[in-house]
């Protein structure tokens, strides 16, 4: 059985802060209806990358 790369990538990107211009690629995919891109955008909006750090929450 192949891993679900979409889910793995979404989880990794959710914990990534420095995306630079690639933010717009994720945003474009989210606007086009990609559920994983939407999850990543929401994760960034919720600051999960920060709040999941030890001692931050």
TrEMBL record:
From its record, what is one biological process in GO terms? tricarboxylic acid cycle
Among its keywords, does the record have Lyase?
A: yes
User: What Gene3D superfamilies does the annotation carry?
Assistant: Aconitate B, HEAT-like domain
Domain (Aconitase B HEAT-like): give its ranges. Answer: 6-50
Q: What is its EC number?
A: 4.2.1.3
Q: What is this protein called?
A: Bifunctional aconitate hydratase 2/2-methylisocitrate dehydratase
Q: Which domain of life is it from?
A: Bacteria
Q: Is Electron transport found in the keyword set?
A: no
User: What InterPro entries does the record tag this protein with?
Assistant: Aconitase_B_HEAT-like_dom, Aconitase_B_HEAT-like_dom_sf
**Pfam families linked:** Aconitase_B_N
What species is this protein from?
Answer: Escherichia coli
Q: Name one GO molecular function term.
A: aconitate hydratase activity
Q: List the keywords (alphabetical).
A: Lyase
């Amino acid at each position: 059985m192949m891993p679900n790369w979409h889910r793995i990538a979404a989880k990794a990107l959710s914990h990534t802060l420095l995306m630079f211009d690639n933010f717009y690629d994720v945003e474009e995919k989210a606007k086009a209806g990609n559920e994983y891109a939407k999850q990543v955008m929401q994760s960034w909006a919720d600051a999960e990358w920060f709040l999941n750090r030890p001692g931050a929450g």
